[in-house]
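Usage

Read records sequentially. Each one opens with the input sequence:
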Amino acid sequence: MSRSVPADQVSADPALGGATTHLLDRLLREPGPGRGRVVDFIDYFGFFIGNIADIALVAGVGLAVLLQLRGVTLAGTAAR
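and closes with the structure output:
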């Protein structure tokens, strides 16, 4: 039995997950609450250095933009 997932959930989940991870890094890492740093460890061919949360944010927002351009509404149905 398959279950369909709303398009907005598919795009929002990675973006919210990446944003939440960045927020938790800022709140919980040294040197203290609210002053922490986000740990970046992936070198993107000299363009910039990022992390998994960056990938999730870009993928989620990119998918949301693509869905919007294709006319898919937040309810996951095609606009008329």
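Summary fields computed downstream for this record:
- The first strand starts at residue 42 and ends at 43.
- The mean pLDDT is 81.
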